[in-house]
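[Automated response] Your request has been received and processed.

Submitted sequence:
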Amino acid sequence: MNSYGFLAESYDQLTTDVDYPGLADYLQRHFARAKLPVHTVLDLACGTGSLTCELARRGYETIGADLSEEMLAVAQEKAAGLGGGVIPPLFLHQSMDRLDLYGTIDACVCCLDSVNYVTRPERLRRAFQRVHLFLMPGGIFVFDIDTPEKLRAMDGQIFLDETEGAFCVWRGEWSQRRRMCTFAMDIFRRDEGHWLRGQELHEEYAYTPEELEEYLRQAGFREIRQYGDRTLRRPKAGAQRIFFAARKD
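Generated structure:
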């Protein structure tokens, strides 16, 4: 079962609760703290490009990279409707650990627990190295994770998302041995009066904050900080989502 294949066409319908303008506001607070003025932003694991396009509307030159061709197709359609005066994003079909840009960037963001989807630590270490390579000196890297506490708590949980044209039920299963939470999804999408059914399997790896800080240091990042969910304060004990910000010297 392919992740973000069948789901791509219904993803935006099923995630209307995601506050992309609010997320962009938060990222801009980090950009303002960077030692380099931020003009060019890479949205790593950009999905359907909602955040990429939101940042483009705010005047940034944006690049979106994602492994799912289906999600990128939706992103391209979305970017086509941005209108005049907005520099359209450039979208690239690439995995994080094989990131290959045409030039340098001032900032990189990777949101909505996309880092957890890199389920092999050696691949995530390479991904951090690639981000560091393409960042300008003084550039900033901001990302968030689902914490191990959150992923463990999802074991045995059943979740339901429903709209007029889409229906998704998913179940979480935690494996202590594999340090992963697996989500089996059944997705139904209305198409010309009929319901189409698809199935997907998603996996998230439970990285500890300490491991991620070490990977960032190994990649060459400095001034590594952890924050609570969309705050500029350190995360509280038991936090379910943590943001990281790291700078390239």
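Summary generated for your ticket: The mean pLDDT is 96. The longest strand covers residues 135-146.
If you did not submit this request, please reply to this message.
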